[in-house]
């Protein structure tokens, strides 16, 4: 009996050594990246793995069967487990780390496993596999948040930003506590990220905006800069703009500190993907013009040619009623870009609309299309002094309840 048990033990040891040898020799660089990322991402779909971790040199993705094979390998090594989860009317496999996988992830990330808490006690910093699990509703939110991470990864590249999950993003300062869903730190700028899956009630949304307003006001005393990215999941929504518009309206009313020049963006994931690098990230690079400035310069040149009068455009920093203005001897045209959902632009635009009733100021809003111009005009009760610059056709129009008026500046 002892001989048999000894043989079984030797077989088991031999099998474990074989697995360890395989682990060392067959886990590729991409699988290592996946394991390291998955600690923060918590869950990942097979499609996300295929799209973001198994991309070939020519830019195409590997065959899905290859991705399944690689994930089976990680599962056999004991690094991941999987669960079926309903996504878009069908069940898909989600992968998550085991405790052994978490140990591997922390090793690959070279992170401290312990820290001192405020009382000076040594505490574990990382989550166990059980603590990393989420309920069904939270999983849906996490998968959407992960898409924000992947959008940044594709836009900026690995190593160009620091991603912090909710636990590492908590900020407590002067009796104010905020808990963003994540933080993307790029240089000295901290982008506080809120991933909206449409679950916030109007009351909760208002409360959250008030907390952000208090924090952003106090953040002026801190050494680092803070901006907010409120990114909305518009997938499978019939009216994609309705949710975004409602959040913009609440933020415009509640986050009043934005008028002092603080950036607070509310946008769809699609808009974030297409606009972040060129119109949000690059604007902070010295010498780069914002879309506001570029369009204001273009309009000023067109007006100058048409009316044979010198028009100049000016960029206004800090607080004020405009981000950019076109000026001549007797009139001011304020220009605000509303395509990025930047709350400070909305606040300045609406302030300019109020002042325009007294003459000498004409507010111009940059919007994506004529349809968006009509939506914004309705919000303003069709104020006749307001003009809209349409990005898709490079036209300027005025909008009345039953008429769109072309303003030809060419």
TrEMBL record:
SUPFAM superfamilies listed in its UniProt record: Winged helix' DNA-binding domain
Organism superkingdom: Bacteria
Region entry Disordered, spans: 1-20
Entry-linked Pfam families: Replic_Relax
InterPro entries reported in the protein's UniProt record: Replic_Relax (IPR025855), WH_DNA-bd_sf (IPR036390)
Name assigned to this protein: Uncharacterized protein
Native source organism of the sequence: Caldanaerobacter subterraneus
């Amino acid at each position: 009996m002892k001989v048999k048990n000894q043989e079984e033990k030797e077989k088991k040891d031999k099998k474990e050594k074989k697995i360890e040898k395989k682990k060392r020799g067959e886990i590729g660089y991409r699988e290592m990246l996946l394991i390291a990322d998955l600690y923060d991402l918590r869950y990942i779909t097979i499609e996300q793995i295929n799209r973001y971790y198994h991309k070939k040199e020519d830019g195409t993705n590997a065959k899905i069967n290859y991705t399944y094979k690689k994930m089976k390998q990680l599962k056999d090594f004991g690094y991941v487990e999987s669960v079926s989860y309903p996504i878009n009317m069908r069940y898909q496999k989600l992968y998550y780390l085991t405790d052994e996988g978490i140990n591997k992830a922390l090793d690959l990330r070279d992170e401290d496993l312990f820290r001192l808490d405020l009382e000076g006690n040594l505490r574990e910093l990382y989550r166990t596999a059980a603590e990393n699990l989420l309920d069904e509703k939270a999983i849906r939110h996490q998968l959407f948040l992960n898409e924000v991470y992947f959008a940044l990864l594709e836009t900026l590249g690995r190593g160009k930003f620091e991603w912090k999950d909710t636990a590492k993003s908590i900020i407590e300062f002067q009796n104010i506590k905020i808990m963003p869903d994540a933080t993307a730190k790029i240089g000295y700028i901290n982008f506080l990220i809120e991933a909206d899956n449409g679950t916030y009630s109007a009351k909760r949304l208002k409360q959250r905006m008030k907390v952000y307003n208090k924090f952003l006001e106090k953040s002026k005393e801190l050494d680092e800069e803070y901006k907010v990215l409120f990114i909305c999941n518009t997938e499978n929504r019939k009216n994609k703009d309705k949710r975004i518009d409602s959040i913009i309206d609440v933020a415009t009313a509640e986050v009043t500190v934005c008028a002092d020049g603080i950036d607070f963006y509310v946008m769809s994931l699609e808009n974030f993907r297409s606009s972040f690098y060129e119109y949000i990230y690059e604007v902070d690079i010295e010498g780069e013009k914002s879309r506001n400035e570029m369009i204001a310069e273009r309009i000023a040149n067109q007006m100058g040619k048409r009316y044979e009068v010198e028009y100049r455009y000016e960029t206004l920093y800090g607080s004020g009623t405009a981000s950019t203005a076109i000026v001549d001897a007797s009139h001011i045209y304020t220009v605000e870009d509303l395509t990025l959902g930047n709350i400070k632009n909305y606040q300045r635009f609406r302030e300019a609309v109020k002042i325009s009733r007294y003459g000498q100021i004409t507010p111009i809003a940059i919007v994506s299309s004529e349809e968006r111009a009509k939506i914004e005009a309705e919000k303003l009760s069709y104020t006749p002094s307001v003009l809209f610059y349409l990005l898709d056709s490079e036209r300027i129009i005025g909008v009345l309840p039953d008429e769109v008026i072309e303003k030809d500046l060419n």
